[in-house]
Structures are given as structure tokens and as C-alpha cells.
């Protein structure tokens, strides 16, 4: 199995539809993102996934330009830790999705 021993995540509508080979684990990405949010005092605010992925404020951050599917996956894991809530819009491409950090 490809994901044994390396950072890889499968996802998509159908199992195995996508495979992301990562140089950081999803938990590490979550930690980087959450640190950026808390360092800027943005807990309690709502940000769009677009702002996180492509916004001027995230330029130079390791998660800037991250694939939106991976970004929402990282946020969903932060949600399981009680640190974020993903707010899905109506578009399957996450273009109208937001996130509130706690």
C-alpha cells in the first residue's frame, strides 16, 4: 500500500479517487494553520477557504496555495479537535465554504 510509512491521504467522492502525497502529515498542517490563526487573534472569526488558500494575509505561509480539498480535510480534522467548524456552502468545489476557529 502506497500510504504505508509515508504521509499520504486518500479522498474524494469515491474511495481512492485522489491521493495526496504530503511532505507534512495532516496533523502538522493543522498545527501550522491553527498556529497562524491564533497568532493573529483570529479565533472566533469566520474566514473563507479562499482567504486561507489565496488571500493576501496568507502569502508566505506554508499553506498558501494548498489544494482546497486538502485544506478542507485539514480543517475537518481541526474540527474533530474542537478547534474549528467547517461551514459548507452549496458549491461542491468549496468556493463558498467558510471556517470558524475556536
Terminal residue distance: 36 Å
Integer average pLDDT: 84
* Class computed from helices, strands and strand pairing: alpha+beta
Question: What fraction of residues sit in β-strands?
Answer: 15-25%
**Rg for CA atoms:** 13 Å
Strand count, sense and closure of the main sheet?
3 strands, antiparallel
Order of SSEs, N→C? EEHEHHEE
Lateral strand order in the biggest sheet: 3-5-4
Shape: globular
**Number of beta-strand segments:** 5
H/I helix tally: 3
- Overall helicity: 25-40%
Question: Which regions contain 5 or more consecutive residues with pLDDT less than 50?
Answer: none
Describe the structure.
With 102 residues, the protein is an alpha+beta fold. Helix content is 32%, strand content 21%. It has a 3-stranded antiparallel beta sheet. The chain has a two-stranded antiparallel ribbon with strand order 1-2. β1 and β2 (18-22) form a beta hairpin. α1 packs across α3 (68-80). The termini are far apart.
Short structural description:
32% of the residues lie in helices and 21% in strands.
Break the fold down into its secondary structure elements and pairings.
Layout: E1 7-11, E2 18-22, H1 26-39, E3 46-48, H2 49-54, H3 68-80, E4 84-87, E5 98-101
Antiparallel strand pairs: 1-2, 3-5, 4-5
Helix pairs in contact: 1-3
Amino acid at each position: 500500500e502506497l500510504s504505508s510509512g509515508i504521509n499520504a491521504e486518500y479522498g474524494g467522492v469515491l474511495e481512492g479517487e485522489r491521493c495526496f502525497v504530503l511532505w507534512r502529515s495532516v496533523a502538522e498542517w493543522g498545527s501550522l494553520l491553527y498556529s497562524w490563526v491564533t497568532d493573529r487573534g483570529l479565533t472566533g472569526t469566520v474566514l473563507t477557504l479562499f482567504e486561507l488558500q489565496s488571500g493576501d494575509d496568507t502569502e508566505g505561509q506554508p499553506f498558501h496555495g494548498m489544494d482546497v480539498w486538502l485544506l478542507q480535510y485539514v480543517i475537518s480534522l481541526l474540527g474533530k479537535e474542537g478547534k474549528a467548524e467547517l461551514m459548507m456552502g452549496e458549491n461542491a468545489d468549496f468556493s463558498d465554504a467558510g471556517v470558524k476557529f475556536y
